[in-house]
L-galactose dehydrogenase-like
Amino acid sequence: MCEQKARDKTLPETFVPCFHDEKEVRKMTYNPLGNTGLKVSKISLGTSGFSNFYGEHDVEECKKVVYEAVRRGINLIDTAPWYGHGDSEKILGTCLEGIPRKAYYLSTKCCRYEKDLALMFDFSAERTRKSIDESLTRLKLSYVDILQVHDIEFAPTLDMVLKETLPTVAEICKSGKARHVGITGYPLSTLKECIEKSTVHIETVLTYCRSMMTDNTLDEYIDFFRSKNVGVVNGAIHGMALLTNVGAPSWHPASDELKAVCREASEFCQKENVELGKLALYYSMQHGAGDTILVGTKSKMKLISYNLDVLHNGLSTKEQEVYEQVLKILKKLPPNSNWEDVEVERYRSKSLNLFDNQ
């Protein structure tokens, strides 16, 4: 029978006796997330896969994934209203039932919502206030640890984020519904500009599809974020499935060249019976940019196991050999291959057409 003991300061604040696997927690690396006071696991759990974004998902499997991830020491979970248009938060809320609230930190987002182009983004104060209440209801929680302004590059102007959205998020934090202010986005230059100009102290950034096998642009910005005591969450190091054996979904904004070379790497891995996603995670762990690597699971238990296996044990001899070959294949691409501005320009073009036709 488990006995409650006095807190061991060698364990993270999120450790809960009688719930956690203490041996697994002691193996986990925990890093300070900027000056938030949160010490987060080296791997964190992304839940965009708890929706239809990457195909079908199984709610019971999602429950097992969340329980096992937290029990084994992963203590940061990320979601958003945008993922499945509320489905991710709703499913995550169900998954968290029975897990002690102390055992995890939770981040969600505001400002990106619906598939309908006219309703996709709303950076207004009114919608942001409504958004946190909706999120808390879906999550069945009284507060989140981090509330992030989602994809700030899509705002009508950065001034709106600076003068309306961020002050509202700060207001929400003062109310106790959230604890820390964050921003997310793809263009790192926009994240940097926002931090430089903001009168609200931005405590975290979530950058995605950077510091990965095909794009190391984050290297150019990490010192700036550190100088501002901003915690860095490094998300989507698989390039939104680009660097997996499954491959990129049809909606992926990458160029045909980038998709083709990644597909070649994927096919090589399949031939060798090695998961490209495992190699991609290993690369990002070795590269080391960011305080935590946010890894999605597409609600599969085996992914949690191999993510933790990479963290604790690295690659096998065969995987290391395949890894070296994959790096050679990816060298066919120009350095820092990405899709900077593609999605924003596509969105603005469609938005103009939508309003012109009204």
